[in-house]
Design brief:
By secondary structure, the chain is an alpha+beta fold. It is built from nine helices and 30 strands. About 1% of the residues have low confidence. GO terms for molecular function: mRNA binding; structural constituent of ribosome.
């Protein structure tokens, strides 16, 4: 009984010993190289087990295998014994397991890891991190796009792990993060030695539409296009080229973002300091058109000094046209200085002021009454616009088209492009208006017709039409209307029907209206005037004679004559 117990104890101890000493499959074990043959290394992993590993598993990417007899190495035990009685081992898998342990620790501690780029894949590159393969995205290779990654292949360098998943076997690394960190340290050191206002030398590194980046020895500064020269610079390439060494002034340093603003013009004299002395108000200068906008044109008076010719100051006659139709870029023009605001660095210029006002010239050469000839440029509801010398227009109002016709009728006889004659009625220089008259070219038929007729005159008219409200009469071809109330002094005789067309009637002129071209006529006014005259000649207020006696005497007197 005691003997059976001791045998059981011995068996248990033996099994425990075997379990402790024999490595488990799937673990990393140490071994010793006992031979190198046929491209393989034979490794004794102990426990009377040997295995074979291809030599390429002992080589880093792009390097030759570094393994010799007697070297101790760690291998991954995949299988204790295969069909040939050998252990199935892998150096590569051991390195991978070792690498993953090391990388996970580095990732947790946010430490850099060393690796080498050894292949190109879609979207980036593959990196060997000492046994584990990681993916390096193309955007993480450098701070700027890399066109040729050849010089970086196989080169051992630091990387930053961005993401890793052991279960899926995925690792993403960045070379750019290392460079940016190093760059930031370098920038901080360089910026610490710079001060605002300091003049330094730099090399033009890159040129954009809005400026240029200048390398100040490890840190870039932005030289904005507006700070390159006092004059207008349309594109930085006009005065700079990549690789050129330039002297610049540090304008501003942002300690937080490490951004540096640079300037070149600040190292030159400011031309605006002498603008008021060089360009007196009212003086005329020749300048070059540098830019054209919807509201005017900019003219360079000297390098660094530009003035604006507002669209309203460009032409006496072209009021509603784009400035680009009056001047062109790079054109040299004469301009007058109208206003200077040194504080705002603005100069107001005038283009039209260098030429005489065409309305003044016209007024001098064409006084009122002068006959002119021109083309009908436009026809509106209120008259005609006629083209005149000096590229200006004159207007013939509807009322000045014809003596006989209404304006609305007379304007129908004209077409755009017709050449017509007219007389100058008035020139208003301040309002830039020229009034013309076509009807003034001929005599006024109304004036000819009425001759010496004036208010109070007695004229004979012919009845042409009978109406309820009065009668229509005609005098020298002109129509007039006598209202019912003006047909007689006697109310009972104020009847239109007592007249017939063709009757001749003496009437008194009560009004001469040259504007409406009509005469005001009245039979009643004539009768009252005759009665008054008869009273003055044949009666008096104290004679006692009746009105009938006076009128009878007046009529007899007329008969005697």
């Amino acid at each position: 009984m005691a003997q059976d117990t001791s045998m059981e104890e011995f068996e248990a101890l033996l099994n425990e010993s075997l379990e402790m000493d024999t490595p488990n499959e799937g673990s990393v074990v140490k071994g010793r190289v006992i031979a190198v043959e046929a491209g393989q290394a034979i490794i004794d992993v102990g426990y009377k087990m040997e295995g074979r590993v291809d030599l390429k598993e002992f080589a880093n990417p792009g390097e030759s295998p570094d393994i010799n007899v007697g070297d101790e190495v760690e291998v991954y035990l995949r299988q204790v014994e295969n069909a040939r009685g050998e252990a199935v081992i892998s150096r590569e898998m051991a390195r991978r397991e070792e690498a993953w342990d090391r990388l996970e620790k580095a990732y947790a501690d946010e430490e850099r890891v060393e690796g080498a780029i050894f292949g190109r894949v879609k979207g980036g590159f593959t990196v060997d991190l000492g046994g584990a393969v990681a993916f390096l995205p193309g955007s993480q290779v450098d701070v700027r796009p890399v066109r040729d990654a050849g010089p970086l292949m196989g080169l051992k360098q630091p990387f930053q792990i961005l993401k890793m998943d052991r279960r899926r076997g995925n690792i993403v690394v960045s070379r750019r993060a290392i460079l940016e960190e190093s760059r930031a340290e370098q920038r901080a050191e360089v910026i610490a030695n710079l001060t605002e206002g300091q003049a330094v030398d730099g090399v033009v590194k890159n040129i954009t539409e809005y400026g240029a980046f200048v390398d100040l020895g490890g840190v870039d500064g932005l030289l904005h296009v507006t700070d390159m020269a006092w004059r207008r610079v349309n594109h930085p390439s006009e005065i700079l080229s990549i690789g050129e060494t330039v002297k610049v002034q540090v304008i501003k340093i942002n300690k937080e973002t490490h951004r540096i603003s640079l300037g070149m013009k600040q190292l030159q004299a400011d031309p605006w300091d002498t603008v008021e002395q060089k360009f007196a108000l009212g003086s005329v200068h020749t300048g070059r058109v540098t830019n054209i906008t919807d509201y005017g044109a900019f003219v360079e008076l000297e390098p660094g000094v530009e003035g604006l010719v507002h669209v309203s100051e460009m032409s006496w006659t072209k009021k509603n046209v784009h400035p680009g139709k009056i001047v062109s870029t790079s054109q040299e023009v004469d301009v007058m200085v109208l206003e200077i605001d040194s504080a705002k660095r603005r100069v107001s210029l005038g283009l039209k002021q260098t030429m005489r006002n065409p309305w003044e010239v016209f007024a001098e050469t064409h006084p009122a009454g002068t006959e002119v000839e021109g083309e009908v440029k436009n026809i509106t509801e209120f008259g005609l616009f006629i083209g005149l010398p000096g590229d200006i227009d004159g207007m013939v109002h509807l009322s000045d088209l014809s003596w006989d016709q209404r304006g609305e009728q007379a304007i129908q006889e004209y077409r755009k492009g017709d050449i017509v004659k007219a007389k100058v009625s008035e020139v208003d220089i301040e309002k830039e208006r020229i009034s013309l008259s076509i009807k003034e070219l001929g005599e006024d038929p109304f004036a000819e017709a009425i001759g010496g007729v004036k208010r109070g005159s007695i004229v004979t008219v012919e009845v042409t039409k009978i109406e309820d409200g009065g009668i229509e009469v005609e005098y020298e071809g002109m129509k007039s209307f006598i209202r019912r109330s003006d047909l007689s002094r006697d109310r009972s005789e104020q009847r239109p029907e007592r007249f017939q067309p063709g009757d001749k009637v003496d009437v008194r002129v009560t009004q001469v209206d040259s504007k409406t071209r009509k005469l005001g006529l009245s039979i009643k006014a004539r009768e009252i005037a005759e009665e008054k005259e008869a009273v003055e000649q044949y009666g008096s207020s104290d004679s006692g004679a009746s009105l009938g006696d006076i009128l009878g005497a007046a009529l007899r007197g007329n008969d005697d004559q």
